[in-house]
Fold this sequence. Notes:
By secondary structure, the chain is α/β, with parallel strands linked by helices. It has two domains: about 15-70; about 85-320, Vaccinia Virus protein VP39 (Rossmann fold), CATH 3.40.50. It has helices spanning about 15-20, 85-90, 100-115, 135, 185-195, 225-230, 245-260, 265-280, 285-290, 295-300, 315-320, and strands spanning about 30-35, 35-40, 45-50, 55, 120-125, 145-150, 155-160, 170-175, 195-210, 235-245, 300-310. An eleven-stranded mixed β-sheet has the order 1-2-3-4-7-6-5-8-9-11-10, sandwiched between helices. A hairpin with a 7-residue loop joins β2 (about 35-40) and β3. α2 (about 85-90) packs parallel to α8 and α7 packs antiparallel against α8 (about 265-280).
Amino acid sequence: MTVELQANPQLKFTESTQKLLCCPVCKSQLKISSSQLECTNYQCQAAFPIINKTPVLINDNQSVFAISDYQGQDSTILKAKPKIERALINLIPSITLNLKAKKNYKKFAELVKAQNPNPRVLIIGGSIVGEGMEPLLSAPEIELVETDVSFGEKISVVCDAHDIPFADNSFDGVVVQAVLEHVADPYRCVEEIHRVLKADGLVYAETPFIAQVHLGKYDFTRFTHLGHRRLFRKFEEIDNGAVCGPGTALAWSYQYFLLSFFKSSVARALVKVFARITSFWLTYFDYLIIDNPGSFDAALGYYFIGKKSEKTIADRELINLYRGTQSSSF
Ligand SMILES: [Zn+2]
């Protein structure tokens, strides 16, 4: 017997989306019970708290985050930078120039609306509004289901991308921008993205290549352009390329080189100010070189827009997709 999750007006999603929620441990249906969601699978019996209208659907045995991390508090697990550092940084030019996100989101929004006039899109890592995401946020016909490992005003479920708590074939689109470097097993996360997408569902990803550690201990992996394509090997390519170019990568490298001399937070904040004022102009070279073959060897990061496919690109096929300038001799 299957038990359907009764719609709960307290939760932050539509009734039809609530019905797609599932147990992150065993993927069985959930039932609501007072202030928690419970797995209907007798052998699993996992329970998940609802805190400030937000269910915490974390697989407690697998995730780097524990359900107990969220209980008794409504703050975020990933803390914002100290106020003094943020205030200083906002006063000075940025050394990150994303030349593609806005155009890509516009394209993604059009494609997803062409698949379904009222599409449902899952945003993984939504507690910080993604660079260039406005075309998606301003389309009222798109239902956005924003998730993250932290609470947030727009976050409707706290979950971990390794175990997405939604049934198979739930979404018309999935957005994962600057997230896959922060997960322990990006291949598993992309498997999960593939699973929750409908047939022909679309993915938009941005993932860094030449970028130094950010978010401290929650930073694990980088991808070359081909490595990123391989990560999405079960998707048909619609578009891909560099999102922030070699100029941005150089500005980041310069800043982190200077930072490596200093330990104190005050000195490091001052070094960041100095580094940004003296190197922001390097990012402007990206306007000239972002689409050059050399960018496929040296960009700060890459994007991928793809469609869920049943076919997997073989590695032998993959190497023919190399678009950089390097020969394969030593
Ligand atoms: Zn379960």
